[in-house]
């Protein structure tokens, strides 16, 4: 405790409440309120309605939820496989090469997402690698952008893993493949689940690359939220944003519980 | 993969498993580095397919590019400064003047990292937009004809939104650093009569500097690359480099100009990425 006097502490907590309220609480509260707003011309909405949600569920929005979930799942699954594979394979390279490759695997997270989308358009708009206009280019864009985060999470997990288990397993005569499947990967599971959850959340909110490459008919949640608000339909946009937030949080909390159970068992 | 992954040899040996790195590296090379190379190539090639820097130089001197560059840097530096201040204030209170429920609040702020950035912009239009709550309230109270608060559609609207979105990225390493500060030292200093401000300056801040540098350089990188916030505010006068790439490529189909701007944006981002790696390396993270 840094501040001992009661008035001092209350003053400091008031500062905290103000900052937290203005920066974090107010935006979330106002999105929730506007998604339920009937008409909003004054300080507060004139009435509440669930109409925007029912519009959203009946309309094209349901397709957007599906597009986002499918994209997020496939891109995260591919990123999980490739990130885990890379992190495991890097352990047996010599130190210098491992460091250089490690940085290369991280670089996609540093490049602006719009440029990733632009690069995909430039590279894959001609045969034989014609992806432009297909759903695959959206998956590829999301995969590239989240792969660095999966790789980073799994590498961090590997670094924290005690080498004892693997050494004991191999001294007991476990073959490498057996050791990987029955010792290393189970120990890594909490990190793999966390990596999958984070990349799924990032993919759900991805806008910059998607808006560059998406084909008509595969409109993800962020893109359809943008086109709604761009048309001036801000209440429907807010309702769809709440759907996005809810789906993301449910996914994250669910995966956290899975990861928690894995570590306990 | 199986054999390679677990051959955790303490001595570097020539094992065939070393080639297991090839599949993920090749995938990344095809899907990320190859398009990156094509962007650079397209930026320096004219219509006839010859190497040419004339267009590159022209864009570099163009008004729209310079404006976007200045906007990007101004927004990024201002937002990073804001993130550092907000992150530091929130972190100090959460770590050293905790209140009932402060752990829950810290986790709530942390979940902002997982939420889409444009959510905040959308919320800000309801709060501070020309027909938003604040303006409606002020116009009602003071019977004004026009909305008095207009900062949202300027650079400052973007800066405030980015501070909200990115200060959790400063808070996270900061709380980790604060958890290592010796509480006994602080209590000893305060028993000896040191005022809180002095304890913060002389005991807590020195321990927080590496986390501030790492969090700050990450914020610089993320704010330079930010797209959703700027797109959603949609102010004519606030164009940043990522938004310019989007509008040149998608709205004007000027792919070469988009590639030239992308080259500069990527170079800027990679420089900041280097800074972040350096800072995070010193932090030991």
From TrEMBL, chain A:
One matching Pfam family: BPD_transp_1
Location of the protein in the cell: Cell inner membrane; Cell membrane
GO CC list: plasma membrane
Segments passing through the bilayer: 12-37, 67-88, 100-124, 130-151, 188-214, 234-255
Keyword list, A-Z: Cell inner membrane, Cell membrane, Membrane, Transmembrane, Transmembrane helix, Transport
Membrane topology qualifier: Multi-pass membrane protein
Span of domain ABC transmembrane type-1: 65-253
Main location (coarse class): membrane
Biological process, per Gene Ontology: transmembrane transport
InterPro entries: MetI-like, MetI-like_sf
PROSITE patterns per record: ABC_TM1 (PS50928)
Assigned protein family: Belongs to the binding-protein-dependent transport system permease family.
Record PANTHER family: INNER MEMBRANE ABC TRANSPORTER PERMEASE PROTEIN YDCV
Protein name: Putative 2-aminoethylphosphonate transport system permease protein PhnV
Organism of origin: Mesorhizobium plurifarium
Organism placement in taxonomy: Bacteria, Pseudomonadati, Pseudomonadota, Alphaproteobacteria, Hyphomicrobiales
UniProtKB/TrEMBL annotation, chain B:
Subcellular location, record wording: Cell inner membrane; Cell membrane
One GO location term (cellular component): plasma membrane
Membrane topology summary: Multi-pass membrane protein
Residues that span the membrane, as ranges: 20-44, 64-97, 109-131, 151-171, 203-223, 229-246, 258-279
CDD domains reported in the protein's UniProt record: TM_PBP2
Entry keyword Membrane: yes
Domain ABC transmembrane type-1: 69-276
Key words, A-Z: Cell inner membrane, Cell membrane, Membrane, Transmembrane, Transmembrane helix, Transport
GO biological process: 2-aminoethylphosphonate transport; transmembrane transport
PANTHER family assigned: INNER MEMBRANE ABC TRANSPORTER PERMEASE PROTEIN YDCV
NCBIfam families: PhnU, PRK15050.1
Family: Belongs to the binding-protein-dependent transport system permease family.
Name of this chain's protein: Putative 2-aminoethylphosphonate transport system permease protein PhnU
Organism of origin: Mesorhizobium plurifarium
